[in-house]
Amino acid sequence: xxxxxxxxxxxxxxxxxxxxxxxxxxxxxxVDKIVAPVDKRHGLGDQFDPVATIADMGAKISAxxxxxxNIELFPxxxxxxxxxxxxANAMLSLGMNVRYIGALGHPAIHPVFEEFARKTKAISxxxxxxxxxxxxxxxxxxxxxxxxxxxxxxxxxxxxxxxGEFLELLSQADLVSIVNWTMIPKMTSLLTELVDKVLxxxxxxxxxxxxxxxxxxxxxxxxxxxxVLQVISRxxxxxxxxxxxxxxxxxxxxxxxxLKSGGKEEEDLKSMAxxxxxxxxxxxxxxxxxxxxxxxxxxxxxxxPGPYCEAPKITTGAGDHFNAGFCSAxxxxxxxxxxxxxxxxxxxxxxxxxxxxxxxxxIELLKTNF
Length: 370
What we know:
The protein is an alpha/beta fold and 370 residues long. Helices cover 40% and strands 23% of the residues. It has one domain: UDP-N-acetylmuramoyl-L-alanine:D-glutamate ligase. The strands form 2 sheets. It has a 9-stranded mixed sheet with strand order 6-5-1-9-10-11-12-13-14, sandwiched between helices. Strands 2, 3, 4, 7 and 8 form a 5-stranded mixed sheet that branches. A hairpin with a 6-residue loop joins strand 2 and strand 3 (48-50).
């Protein structure tokens, strides 16, 4: 795909630099166990054909109805997970100063989070959840144990952080990213407490953005989704608000808000992004299917294709890397369109390598793959 010369000129003229930017990210935390469902075995270890697609897996399960099935899950690796830690880790790699608050283990930090917790001077609230991520060529199925996340609420966060330190953290933050609403049952009440008790006491700041990601709210009721969307809208009175949605999340939000949804074509995505942003009254709405992304602000709406990868090395965390790339690009002063391109390349590098990129690697991918 080709990007305009205007984007190339913007990339060349402006440094993608984040060393002076501060972020606070939370509130989840998962131990991700990445597995491959086995279709046919040919020997020991990784000598097998994996189940190729989600539909193939569904067919296997459906065929077992009234009988039984034994499906082997081959462990690929174990890593830190959760929308918050993955996004925060990506922003660390891009060069931002990041503090983390979330579910990383309590009283002791879980081993998969030890280095991350040290780098982010993390404040851990409770034990992490556990996700078993079944990866396929066309997506992933994530099986989560979220019982520990029921412990996260406003009072626990304040008691662990200290009221003064928490207010100081938010005061110094250019970006506050609060993600994975779906998996944290008390998140809506926590956000309400923040907007009622904390935000009015923050000192003015030239740059302050709150970023939200619902994280696949299909299991939550329409009334729950509508309630949190209205609370998120209230943050706009105190800071710039960005809501990031993947395509399925965009469809769900359109349904809840009574808006017309569409397909994955450019004009459909731009229309959905524009209408959701207008309905919620927030600064920015980002809508990102796998193949492209759209962004709406009060100044207009933009769309960009992405450097699509036919054979990704990893897909779990791709959306979180997109979010990290977009927020980081905007904090660096890039235009919405350029930020979309940099976001797709941040995600694109990750799915190709299973590693979070530096800003130089993001720009390299942009220049070699567009």
